[in-house]
Design a protein that fits this description.
By secondary structure, this protein is an alpha+beta fold. Helices cover about 25% and strands about 20% of the residues. Strand 8 and strand 9 (about 295-300) form a beta hairpin. The relative contact order is 0.15. One of its GO terms (biological process) is response to oxidative stress.
């Protein structure tokens, strides 16, 4: 063998060994690359499970206690400045007093007074509380005792606004002179189905006698009956679950048939004290309004009408119904005789 062949064979063996080393390094790096995440996760879980819980340094606890307690023993919460809360200056403007309009000159007696209208106004939808003018759509004294005329007048008034409301007022023949009725979201008209929305409600109102000769006990708190006669609110311990709404408003032309005022000096004027009670929609059923050519009705359920009026506007029925959860509206009982009826338009 010649001397020139030895170096070539040595160089080839060295290159082969280097290539084997590089290949092994590549395989090792690839294996370590894929095995590293698994090893890292396993080792991290092992440390988390085996390491003891770290204890808080005492200096931090002392610092927190020092920050929570001042040298004079008072807590930090007592040293925090709390500003005085004041009412927001942005309050809604007061409602404009109502104006009752229409052809009122031909009326012998107007059922709706401004004091009663203000009570009903508080329960109508908010969009209609801003309306400060109510218009008389129908009156039995002016237009005659006809349910068809009532339907026609309400239909004509509904052309003003489709989102208007209507207030029905009925006076019966009871000696108390109370009036009652309903707020209707739609103009009453004959239909084969119930209509109206949950904004409908029934109501009743009466004028309370002025307090006279009240003998309040001297050695104890006055009874709830005495407070009611005096126009004062009941005590906080009284049960007011079923209490009616009583409001004192002064009305110049009050015609809500006030009770006799015997015992008062001649010429004495007393404010009109109205007891107003409303029965809103209960949500039990959707029997709000149902009208035909022969009757007008509101509320229903279990075979009872909340308010029912015949076509001649002479007879009526009022019983407790599920729609409004009301009591009978008339003091005469379930059935009553009608003396007068009005419908007022509430809208633009």
């Amino acid at each position: 063998m010649s001397s020139t062949e030895l170096p070539s064979s040595a160089s080839s063996s060295r290159s082969a060994s280097r290539s084997r080393q590089s290949n092994s390094q590549i395989h090792q790096s690839a294996a370590s690359y894929f095995s590293y995440p698994v090893t890292h996760v396993v080792s991290g879980l092992y440390r988390r499970l085996t390491d003891p819980p770290a204890s808080k340094p005492k200096n931090n606890m002392n610092r927190n206690q020092h920050s929570m307690t001042s040298p004079n023993g008072s807590t930090a919460s007592s040293q925090i400045f709390t500003p005085v809360r004041t009412a927001s200056p942005f309050q809604p403007p007061p409602l404009t007093p109502l104006t009752l309009t229409g052809d009122l000159s031909n009326l012998q007696e107007q059922l709706l007074t401004r004091a009663l209208a203000e009570e009903i106004r508080l329960l109508v939808p908010a969009r209609l509380q801003l309306v400060d003018t109510w218009r008389l759509a129908y009156s039995l004294d002016r237009d005659g005792a006809s349910l068809a005329t009532l339907y026609e007048n309400c239909r004509e008034m509904s052309h003003r606004s489709p989102r208007a409301g209507y207030v029905l007022i009925v006076r019966d023949a009871s000696p108390s002179g109370a009036v009652f009725g309903a707020y209707m979201t739609d103009p009453p008209h004959p239909d084969s189905h119930y209509y109206g929305t949950g904004e409908c409600f029934l109501w009743r109102a009466s004028v309370l006698a002025p307090p006279t000769n009240l003998n309040l006990p001297r050695d104890g708190p006055p009874s709830e009956a005495m407070l009611e006669l005096a126009g004062l609110p009941p005590p906080p311990s009284a049960d007011t679950t079923h209490a009616g709404r009583s409001t004192t408003l002064r009305a110049r032309d009050a015609k809500l048939a006030p009770p006799p005022t015997s015992g008062l000096p001649s010429g004495a004027s007393t404010p009109e004290r109205i007891r107003f009670k409303a029965f809103p929609y209960s949500g039990v059923n959707d029997y709000m309004m149902f009208c035909e050519t022969g009757f007008l009705s509101l509320g229903g359920g279990d075979g009872h009408y909340g308010l029912w009026i015949d076509s001649s506007l002479e007879k009526g029925v009022s019983a407790g119904c599920q729609t409004f959860g009301n009591e009978p509206l008339s003091d005469e009982g379930v059935k009553f005789d009608i003396l007068s009826v009005e419908v007022w338009y509430v809208g633009a």
